[in-house]
Amino acid sequence: MLRFLTAGESHGQALVTILEGLPAGLLIDFDAITRELRRRQGGYGRGRRMAIESDRAEILSGVRRGRTTGAPVALLVRNKDWDNWQNTMHVEAEAPAGATGANRAAVVRPRPGHADLAGALKYDHDDIRDVLERASARETAALVAAGALARQLLLAIGCDISSHITGIGSVVVPAQTVVPFARVKAMALDAPLRCTDPELEQKMMAAIDAAKEAGDTLGGSFEVIAHDVPVGLGSYVQWDRKLDGRLAQALMSIPAIKAVAIGDGVDGARRPGSQVHDEIVSDTAARSGEPVVVRPTNRAGGLEGGVTNGEELRVTGFMKPISTLMKPLRSVDLTTLEDAPAAIERSDTCAVPAAAVVAEAMVGLVLADAVLERFGGDSMDDLLARVGSTGARVRGRLTRRRSPARA
Ligand code: EPS
Questions:
Q1: Residues 355-372: pLDDT tens digits?
Q2: pLDDT at 402
Q3: What DSSP letter does each residue of 100-119 carry, written as one string?
């Protein structure tokens, strides 16, 4: 079992993650963690905060001489912006001597669409900052750091994850477009939007520019693809073991994600079964010793009955527009209960590219957990041996047996 918790506020000192369950002996690629954190910070439509931060995760425990020990891994991502917020966000009752940054007034005008109002009522806060600091999508940096480690476990068993943008506002990649994994992987990691259609990408960027100009924000969608996923992750035998449900929860937990689709998703609900299900056929051209059972299509996105079927895993997330608008919506001052425009916090115009990187991390964490559940193993050697022998058995089931040699 792989489990993790995060802590940290957007303008506090740091974000912290504890990740437990990684087998011993996983070689850690430190640069890959930084690369994922940098990717999350980028993307067209981000705001000024990202010019301040240059995220890096420090590993505090659970790794020795470059390899995991099997102990919990603690990760720390410091907030550079903390220096501008110490007088607002200090932990002590009074700001300590030498604290820096302004002492900001309480936030009292909740932003529609944010956790502001519901959070202030639930936790009985007068200053909405106590809500927004933790509800902020800054926390997703901690998820990406943890996800980077989960993805290294998956890479060790040959499973790779990537993503691409499929829509920004009303500019969308047509339904049923299948973008090959190799094309997604071939895109530059720092491409402004990581949409595989350059013409659409230009239109998407223009849409973001127009929204920014209008003081508005835009949502969109992205597809996460996991390549070479072992067969048999998740299970159909109990509701909470179905992998599609676990992926949906993981993606829906990312701020502003409002819908999740597996494979063709919503589009499949609008077509007859004959145009939705992926036929199972025998490949007559298969050479001896090669699997002969193939699926010409993968509309199911690699999951049937909540179990991975050996095809690519394809999951789409849909993000609503960011709720901080520079041209604010109507709201109410919670101290006077008079009408007042919603608070304006510095924010992004569009964070769909960042959300896609976070979704890759969450898919990585769910898949790594499911891999450990299926194969177990406290050390990487144990895990690799089990993945190998089960893989050989599965391949054997789908391979034509040679006729036994005549005596
Ligand atoms: C966010 C508001 C902005 C974003 C932030 C999420 O932060 P700030 O209020 O400091 O300008 O930049 O995202 C991050 C800091 C990040 O690392 O992703 C919000 O309100 O959710």
A1: 999 999 999 999 999 999
A2: 60
A3: -S--PPPP-SPPTTSSHHHH
Residue pair 86/11 in contact by the 8 Å Cβ criterion: no
pLDDT in tens, 40-53: 999 998 888 888 98
**CB-based contacts of 172, cutoff 8 Å, min separation 6:** 166, 221
- Look at ligand 1, atom 3, and give the residue with the nearest C-alpha: 347
The secondary element (H helix, E strand) that includes residue 262 is strand 257-262
Residue nearest to atom 9 of ligand 1 (CA): 346
Q: Which residues contact 252 (CB under 8 A, 6 or more apart)?
A: 258, 260
Q: What is the pLDDT of residue 407?
A: 46
Task: List, edge to edge, every strand of the sheet that includes 14-20.
Answer: 3-7, 14-20, 73-78, 57-61
Residue with the nearest Cα to atom 19 of ligand 1? 136
Lowest-confidence segment of 92-96, 220-224, 280-284 by average pLDDT: 280-284
Residue 404 in this model has a pLDDT that exceeds 70: no
Ligand 1-lining residues (CB < 6 angstroms): 10, 47, 49-50, 53, 81, 136-138, 140-141, 324, 345-348
The two three-digit tokens of residue 80, written as one number: 């550079």
Q: In this structure, what token pair is assigned to residue 157?
A: 């068993």
Q: What domains can you pick out in the chain, each with its CATH number?
A: 3-397 (3.60.150.10)
| Distance in Å, CA 80 to ligand 1 centroid | 13
For the chain, percent helix, then strand, then coil, each to nearest 5? 35, 20, 45
Other CB atoms within a 10 A radius of the CB of residue 162 amount to 20
Q: Are 89 and 138 in contact (CB under 8 A)?
A: no
Q: What are phi and psi of 181, to 5 degrees?
A: -55, -40
Q: Counting Cβ atoms within 10 Å, is residue 267 exposed (0-12), middle (13-18) or buried (19+)?
A: middle
